[in-house]
Request: fold
Amino acid sequence: MSTCLIVHFSQGGTTRRVAEAIATGLRAQGHAVELHDLKDGPPPAHDRYDVLGIGCPAHYYRPALLVSDYLATLPALTGKPVFTFVLHAAYLGDAGNQVRHELARRGAAELGYARFRGEGHFLGYLRHGYQFSPASPDAGALARAERFGGELAARLAGQAQDRAPLDPPPPAVYRLERLLTSRPLIRHVYSRLFRQDRERCSGCGSCVKGCPTRNISEDDEGGRVWGRDCILCFACERRCPRRAISAPLTWAMFWPFMVFNTWSASRDPGIGHLRVVHANGRTSAVPPP
Reply:
């Protein structure tokens, strides 16, 4: 049987849960599976494994930047079986397409592709009173992920497959949002504009501990310093219990996008949502009237 490495990025644990369910399906057919979360550092060399899986959440309608960075480091994958799975809370965009295209460009042989819902924790939506795909992935989705693992095992054993179609491209407004949150703008503009209110800050360290790229450090006076490895996840600001961090998300230029996105997704019958209040680092459901 084969050995499989599933490389993923799971900031809140949902992608990890799906990865574990897929691994369960593969292991049930005798395959050895290892999981590696990119927030824990570089993964082991893929050439030690027969199969490579890539799992990521969709951020700004594209793959999370940690996953894109990992894909950029991969050498030729000539003939290596690969599979991809993507999680999204609201709209997916073409995050999955980008991962699949990048793997194909390196010569990999696609084994399968799947999409799943994952509970949303994007601060821009929480502040507008919405959490999308709450309590996802649910038991049904995890069972489907396990079946997907079983299907991958069957294909490794020689079963024929129909290649999953590509996802439709996102509408123009979402492509504009993606442009405004490009890696160069994050590195050279937005990452320089995070601010700490030292009078409010309690020194709890939740921002430092919660940063998936270890981008936040502490200076000699106890102040927070942001580096250039930000991925614009806003976990630092979302987790802060004293509202001591402010970030570019509060700029007026982003306000229309947040209003449009929450309005559109909250009216989409295919996207579950919960009315919430986010304050002091915690998200709470709004009691029903």
